[in-house]
Amino acid sequence: MLARGCGAAGAAALGSYFWGGVGVEARRAYALAPESALPPDIQRASPEIREAYRFAVANRDTLRYIPCFCGCGAEGHVSNASCYLKDSSGPQRLEFDRMSLG
Q1: Do the beta carbons of residue 85 and residue 78 sit within 8 Å?
Q2: Which of 33, 79, 25 is nearest to 53 (CA)?
Q3: Among 11, 33, 40, 86, which residue is least crowded by beta carbons within 10 Å?
Q4: What's the CA gap between 84 and 99, in Å, rounded?
Q5: How far is 2 from 92, CA to CA, in rounded Å?
Q6: Which residue segment(s) compose the domain that 81 sits in?
Q7: What is 18-79 written as a DSSP string?
Q8: What's the pLDDT tens digit per position in 21-47?
């Protein structure tokens, strides 16, 4: 459950920063990748988890500057981006990390 908390906490923190407390659908001030960019198992996740992965795909360079505080460093993660996408994957061939699915 620690991993799921990492994804949800990261999404909540980013949401507060980018949404400014306003309804999500009313004022989204950041880019999201299309849901079609997600693998089928992630497409079946909750809306919040799907949105976190979509944010990670579209804003990976930003997430690389945000540390992850959920203890996943032992798994080789170097930033919050690592919780969603494998560091070795490139933009043309994304490899998803499932730790944020829970």
Answers
A1: no
A2: 33
A3: 40
A4: 7
A5: 30
A6: 2-22+30-101
A7: HHTTS-TTT---S----GGGS-HHHHTS-HHHHHHHHHHHHTHHHHTTS---SSGGGGT--S
A8: 445 555 667 899 999 999 999 999 999
- Diameter of the chain by CA atoms? 38
How many structural domains are present in the chain?
1
Distance CA 90, CA 64 (A): 14
Burial of 50-63, coded b for 16+ CB within 10 Å and e otherwise, reads: bbbbbbbbbbbebb
Q: pTM of the prediction? A: 0.72
* Distance spanning both ends of the chain, measured CA to CA: 6
Q: Which amino acid is at 23?
A: G
Supply 24's token pair.
């999500």
The DSSP 8-state label assigned to residue 9 in this structure reads H
Structure tokens at 89: 């994957």
